[in-house]
Design brief:
Blueprint: H1 16-19, H2 23-36, E1 40-45, E2 50-51, E3 54-55, H3 62-67, E4 73-77, H4 94-106, E5 110-114, H5 134-140, H6 142-160, E6 172-175, H7 194-210, E7 216-220, H8 228-232, E8 243-247, H9 257-278, E9 281-287, H10 297-308, E10 311-316, H11 337-345, E11 349-350
Parallel strand pairs: 1-4, 1-10, 1-11, 4-5, 5-6, 6-7, 7-8, 8-9, 9-10
Antiparallel strand pairs: 2-3
Helix pairs in contact: 5-6, 5-7, 6-7, 10-11
Length: about 350
């Protein structure tokens, strides 16, 4: 497919709504509409497949059980698809993911995918950081390059196979090689050169295109950066990216609130500038306060941030069922439940029930 220039509130026009043809273009137009209206769609990782104290149930969601609505965006992870595993790295069966993607699309919501992939050199997981030659070998070693291409093909075929009841492909956001400004993944800034990172991204896109994938909107998502130059240092190019994202977590709770606000401002500020210059969409692709230790975090911390920038959506991370303190959305009875309901009711946020109005 030809890369689509997303019409964004940051500077492009809104003709995409009338001219969208591919599933990716249709999703791009919806994201554009959110930004243009000053709205932010709320998202949650793995929302309907497990929660704070449950796993595997159907028809459940910590977000739905607190706010009365599903998230507008659901993020899933492809980690494991490259190995032909039946379930992903969080033990969620890919068949279940497929079913939930279809259900989320049917209710008008948006689906997004990250990919914590093993490396094709020795099969080590995403957090194998000691080997600083993995990306270089993917680019320059014919055998490793071939293995990597096969990994991407498996991811592409899964994404391409996601179809609705009418047989049409379901559009998704795809966010590969994320948080590359950090050093905790094998594609991180200490693990590969800027040139090799860009080549990794372009190679991923090349294989996806060869597979005829036309239902992907591509998100670039550095971890926190100090300025625009750092944000753009490894940018693969306008023809390869649709969404200028930012992954910035609130670590440390209330004592680190200013650190979080400053990091979000620097990173989202850079993303917004880049989007304006290039006609792209802005998104807060990952964030959250682990354990939500501030009862009014939703309305006093997150809402002001997403209101300041034209972010089409914001995604908080998962609610682990097997790690009591590892959750990023409230659950029934949590201290921030009432504040989250206020966040849900605010006219600037969008959840699943309202998404059918966003076309």
């Amino acid at each position: 497919m030809a890369i689509l220039p997303i019409a964004a509130a940051c500077g492009a026009n809104h003709q995409a709504n009338q001219t969208a043809e591919t599933p990716a273009e249709q999703l791009a137009a919806r994201l554009d509409t959110l930004s243009a209206k000053g709205l932010t769609a709320f998202g949650h990782d793995d929302d309907p497949v497990y929660g704070h104290s449950w796993v595997g149930d159907t028809g459940r969601s910590d977000v739905m059980e607190t706010a009365g609505d599903y998230p507008a965006v659901m993020n899933w992870d492809l980690g494991g698809i490259e190995k032909k595993d039946a379930a992903n790295l969080d033990s969620v069966d890919f068949g279940r993911i497929r079913a939930e993607v279809i259900a989320q699309d049917a209710r008008g919501g948006i689906n997004a995918f990250s990919w914590h992939s093993v490396n094709p050199v020795d099969g080590g997981d995403s957090w194998q950081c000691s080997d600083t030659m993995i990306v270089s070998r993917i680019i320059n070693d014919k055998e490793i390059n071939g293995r990597f291409r096969e990994q991407v093909r498996r991811a592409a075929r899964f994404i391409g196979s996601l179809t609705d009841a009418g047989g049409s492909r379901i559009p998704v956001v795809f966010r590969p090689w994320h948080e590359h400004t950090g050093n905790w993944f094998w594609w991180g800034s200490d693990q590969c050169s800027a040139d090799d990172y860009r080549a990794l991204w372009r190679l991923t896109r090349e294989v996806m295109d060869q597979e005829g994938i036309d239902n992907v909107v591509w998100a670039y998502s550095p971890d926190r950066v100090k300025d625009y130059d750092e944000y753009m240092e490894r940018y693969p190019g306008d023809e390869y990216v649709d969404i200028m994202g930012a992954d910035v977590y609130h670590w440390g709770g209330e004592s680190s609130l200013d650190v979080y606000r400053n990091a979000a401002a620097a990173t989202l500020g850079a993303a917004t500038r880049a989007a304006r210059e290039r006609g792209k969409t802005v998104a807060f692709t990952e964030t959250g306060l682990e354990g939500v230790t501030m009862p009014r975090w939703w309305t006093e911390v997150l809402l002001p941030i997403v209101s300041e920038y034209p972010v089409a959506y914001v995604v908080v991370w998962r609610n682990a069922h097997d790690k009591p303190g590892h959750f990023f959305a409230p659950w029934r009875g949590h201290d921030s439940e009432d504040d989250f309901r206020k966040f849900h009711a605010d006219g600037r946020t969008v959840f699943a029930k309202e998404m059918n109005k966003i076309r």
